[in-house]
Amino acid sequence: MRLDVLTLFPDMFPGYLGQSVLSRAIQRGLVDVRLHNIRDWSDDKHNTVDDRPFGGGPGMILKVEPVVKAVEAVQKTGAEPGRLVMLTPQGRRLNQSVVEELSGCKRIVFLCGRYEGFDERIRTILEPDEISIGDFVLNGGEVAAMVVIDAVIRLVPDVLGDEDSSGADSFSGPDRRLEFAQYTRPREYRGLEVPGVLLSGNHEEIARWREENSEARTRARRPDLLG
Ligand code: ADE
């Protein structure tokens, strides 16, 4: 899977990209991430990418020319333009179904905003898939892009080993419930014992316990998921 990120702050990414699951996926050639600075497509001498809003008001707005030029140039590199995802609090809300949908893309181009927002014509011209990671406002789309990337690459074939496969994750599977409670050694800690059935070796009973536990947890914590 190829991922391109357009941002004014490419330096926010290498620390995250260099760690854990994503770093291994990149090293193994399963995911190819390219960072692009939108400022490189500004054509005035001060490298301006933002300006004050027409009509007045606080903050700065990302300008249409450098952003459209940057996206179009990046989309032209590579075999296909890919899915253009714009990170904005006004987008459709991210959830595991959206993540599954994105994980089927061969290429995703992420457009991260800063300041008070994008010139509206960026939306009209590029028609991006606008995604929000929740009903709160971040200082920019970069952290949101990392959230989407993190969730999507878990579902790219071979990125996770069998050992930590994503199949039992919360929100996954046909009924989209929360995952059951998990335990590891020791069997007892401060008087708290691991449920005996998990030590029984009886796979059918373990599966039944997990199914019930998952349902009870979902009912207690997220009844909205049970419909
Ligand atoms: N940019 C600023 N806030 C955001 C949010 N909640 N989701 C995605 N991108 C954003």
Task: Describe it.
With 227 residues, this protein is α/β, with parallel strands linked by helices. The protein folds into two domains: 2-153, SPOUT methyltransferase, trefoil knot domain (Alpha/beta knot, 3-Layer(aba) Sandwich), CATH 3.40.1280; 174-226, tRNA(m1g37)methyltransferase, domain 2 (Trp Operon Repressor, Chain A, Orthogonal Bundle). The protein is built from seven helices and ten strands. It has a five-stranded parallel sheet with strand order 2-1-6-5-8. Strands 3-4-7 form a three-stranded mixed sheet. It is elongated, with a radius of gyration of 22 Å. The chain starts with a strand and ends in a 6-residue tail after the last helix. The chain binds adenine. Adenine is lined by residues 87-89, 132-134, 136-138, 140-141, 144.
Q: How much strand content do the residues show?
A: 15-25%
Which CATH class of the largest domain is shown? Answer: Alpha Beta
Q: What is the SS-derived class?
A: alpha/beta
Mean pLDDT: 94
* Shape field: elongated
| Main sheet strand line-up | 2-1-6-5-8
Brief overview:
With 227 residues, the protein is of the alpha/beta class. The chain is built from seven helices and ten strands. It binds adenine.
Topology, element by element:
Blueprint: E1 2-7, H1 14-17, H2 20-27, E2 32-37, E3 50-51, E4 61-62, H3 64-76, E5 83-93, H4 96-103, E6 107-112, E7 117-118, H5 120-126, E8 129-132, H6 142-153, E9 188-189, E10 192-193, H7 203-221
Parallel strand pairs: 1-2, 1-6, 4-7, 5-6, 5-8
Antiparallel strand pairs: 3-4, 9-10
Helix pairs in contact: 3-5, 4-6
This protein binds adenine (ADE).
Adenine binds at residues 87-89, 132-134, 136-138, 140-141, 144.
